[in-house]
Amino acid sequence: MEVNLESLKELIATGIVRALEQEFVYKKQNLGLKTANCYRDLKLDTIYSILEEMFTSDDYFIHNFRRSYWKGQILVDLNSKALVSITSTKNLKRLSKDKSRKVPHYMKTIINSLNSEFKPHKQLSFDSSNTDGDEIYNKEFNDIFSDIGISLKRFTYYIVAYDYKSNKVTDINWYLFGRDFYIEDEESLMKYIKPDVLELTSLENETDDANTNSEGHEPNEGIKLGLKKKKSKKHS
Fold it and tell me: Structural domain of residue 96, as residue ranges?
């Protein structure tokens, strides 16, 4: 039976935009930090906090886990049996190039534990050679979800990656990876993002001002430079 993930996808896309274009910008301005060293973790903390505020059902919750000194978060949807991690596109492409890791990245651990049924046919553009054994994955997986309190036997793991530039979210993509980061499915979530009302109002006002002269009259149309009107074809 195919699971409907539309509500979850819309929730995540909307939450990412709200978190990064509003709340994160506000935090940056008020913290007054001299470096951006903490921004990556601050972005993720802000995203998951906003998503938690937006939850409209007990079917959604955030699972917190610890990896040594680092704390991570994963969104859980009990209804669609989905686990979702959120990261930047840059980080997603970078994470499995690090061959100095003593243990596999937690995303790779969950993918290889929950999504191993998907057969590889297309691979993300980074080195994902499998150097870790199943025993390591099993141990790490159990550590990550030791206190989640539910069975994850029928769950599927997804990753959402965003691009962010000049305080604007420019792209959001939903990925279903098979073992060792082989892409089973991918989808853009930008279709769920509604245009900013204030931004649209500002653009409309600028257009109105440009079309009205200083005396409040509509300007003459004049000659349009470089543009020719298409001649309408006569129909017999």
Answer: 6-190
Residue 185: in which H helix or E strand, if any?
Answer: strand 182-188
Q: Which amino acid is at 217?
A: H
Residue 211 within a domain: no
Largest CA distance in the chain: 79
Please report whether residue 149 resides in a domain: yes
Give the count of domains, the chain: 1
- Which residue matches tokens 């686990």? 83
The answer, yes or no, to whether residue 36 has pLDDT greater than 70, is yes
The Cα 62–Cα 22 span in angstroms is 21
Q: Is 152 exposed, middle or buried (0-12, 13-18, 19+ CB in 10 A)?
A: middle
Mean pLDDT of all residues in 179-193: 91
Question: Which of 124, 101, 102 is CA-nearest to residue 111?
Answer: 124
Question: What was the pLDDT predicted at 70?
Answer: 87
Which run of H or of E encompasses 53? Answer: helix 39-54
Can you read off the two tokens belonging to residue 104? Answer: 């596999």
Angle at 21 between CA 20 and CA 22, to 5 degrees: 95
Task: State the residue for tokens 């550590």.
Answer: 143
Does 44 map to a domain? yes
Residue 108, Cβ density class (10 Å: 0-12 exposed, 13-18 middle, ≥19 buried): buried
Task: Report d(CA 110, CA 236) in Å as an integer.
Answer: 67
Percent of the residues in the chain that have a pLDDT greater than 70, as a whole number: 73
Q: How far apart are CA 162 and CA 88, in angstroms?
A: 5
Between CA 214 and CA 35 the distance in angstroms is 46
